[in-house]
Amino acid sequence: MARRPADDAHRPGPRRSGDATPTPRAWAARILALRTKEERQQALAEVPEELRELVKKHVEIAWNHPARRNKP
Q1: Averaged pLDDT score across all residues of the chain
Q2: Residue ranges of region Disordered (predicted)?
């Protein structure tokens, strides 16, 4: 059986804790934690352009999730 290379940088998956750039889901979590719509819009504008649409979609899905409506 062939062995995998030691360097796993080419494999997709979760980012390592040492990575400086947050994942799209991490950006979305930060945005969802903000209180006002203006704060959320400003934070979305700060997301790197290549990730912005994906982060926006994550935020929309989380915002519209039925479980969110059941919170006190």
Answers
A1: 83
A2: 1-25
User: Within 13 Å of residue 11, how many CA atoms lie on the same side as its CB?
Assistant: 8
pLDDT band at 55; cut points 50, 70, 90: very high
Domain with 39 in it: 24-69
Domains contained in the chain, number: 1
Burial (CB < 10 A; 0-12, 13-18, 19+), residue 47, is buried
User: Any idea what the Cα angle at residue 10 is, between residues 30 and 12, rounded to 5°?
Assistant: 45
Measure the CA–CA gap between 58 and 32, rounded to whole angstroms: 10
Query: What is the DSSP track for 11-58?
Result: S-SSPPTT-SSPPHHHHHHHHHT-SSHHHHHHHHHTS-HHHHHHHHHH
